[in-house]
Amino acid sequence: MEFLSFDAKEKSLKLEKGAVPVPGPDEVLVKVAYAGICGTDLHIIEGIFPCKSDGPITLGHEFSGIVEAIGSNVTVFSIGQNVVVDPNAGCESCDFCHNGKYHFCQRSSHKTVGIFKDGGWSTHAVVPESQVFLVPDGVTLAQAALVEPVSCLIHGLDLINPINIGSRVLVIGAGIIGFLWSIVLHLQGHRKSVTMSVRREKRRELFENLNLGYQALTPAELKGREFDLAIDCSGSSSAMEEALTLLGRGGRLCIFGVANPSAEVKINPFEVYAKELTILGVNINPFSFPKALTLVASLADTYLDYEQLGIGVFKLSQYEEALKTLKNGHITKAVFKF
Description:
By secondary structure, the chain is an alpha/beta fold. The protein is built from twelve helices and 15 strands. The protein has helices at about 40-45, 95-100, 140-145, 145-160, 175-185, 200-210, 220, 235-245, 270-275, 290-305, 305-310, 320-325, and strands spanning about 1-5, 10-15, 25-35, 65-70, 80-85, 125-130, 130-135, 170, 195, 215, 225-230, 245-255, 280, 310-315, 335. α4 packs across α10 (about 290-305). The radius of gyration is 20 Å and the shape is globular.
């Protein structure tokens, strides 16, 4: 098999070949079809987000594929089925896990596929049966590669709903996450009341290709406007600070993008008090994967076209080009196709 090996100490990626892994009794061997590059992956490669550091790791926590082999105890899946992987799991024994909040589990970080265990930037990946899901009818494997980020978005929706029709919503960050938030809001019936904050002209062009009828404005063009809800998908502390100044009375800021762990945001506590502002964070996808599969099936025909979303597709051997193209803003997301 071919895979990208990441060395956290050297901050280096290398294309390598090796033997196809054999699944254990409770594992599934997935022949990877599509694997996305996430903003978190970029942070890991830059050395500002934690990952397995005591040896090489194959990154990639957003991927879909076909079942190629199953362990002796696996009963839910069979060879040849289209599947998608949830990279996250809990220890299933701590108080957080028992209370349905495994994303707070302090014992399970070493289990995250594609961050602490080998993931999908490979032709093959071994995954626990409990973290594998069937791809619904009508959803392609390319679209299924977006289920993981959508599952995180679902958790965000669970935390900030209701978003009443007519609410003035600001989406910050014209990457794939900002695009996905925009199309989900559009699916829910939000129309002229949503605004996208963009910093790059190329991203404005890509966003307008979605034909959602939303305005795309630069931070300078947003001055003087007021919003009920701001959803930060950029992870930029300066963008979050700007968003707080744009919130009206009772306004809410949802911090969805993954920031540099050392980043800080200055707030005016009097303004938070006077306006009764709410600031909330969204951390991964606790038990939201099944909902995400249903949502992706609803979005598939109308919204999830790679070209319209500005997603670039690359071979695994083109990883340097993929990373460069993503960083320079010419695409919203890079996906490896096998």
